[in-house]
Design a protein that fits this description.
This protein is an all-alpha fold and about 90 residues long. It contains three helices and no strands. α1 crosses α2 and α2 crosses α3. It starts with a helix and ends in a 5-residue tail after the last helix. The model has no long low-confidence stretch (mean pLDDT about 80).
Amino acid sequence: MGIISWIILGLLAGVIAKILLPGRDPGGLIGTTLIGIAGAFVGGWLSAKIFDRPVQNEFFDAATWGAAIGGSLVLLILYRLLFGNSRD
């Protein structure tokens, strides 16, 4: 997959992570989207390095989607923990 595919996957993973973790985010929709893109890259990297499961070259691979969504969820949780009270 190319960089554009990872960005699209990250955008979709960010939306799915937002659906799975509803609530107010400190960065709003733009921040959640950027976290989704970063989460896709982090999830793919962790999948390849730690779990010895390299990402496939196919856009519709379930493991690639799982890694991207998992990375997005982790980053979204960390972001909320670090900056969650800034919009109160």
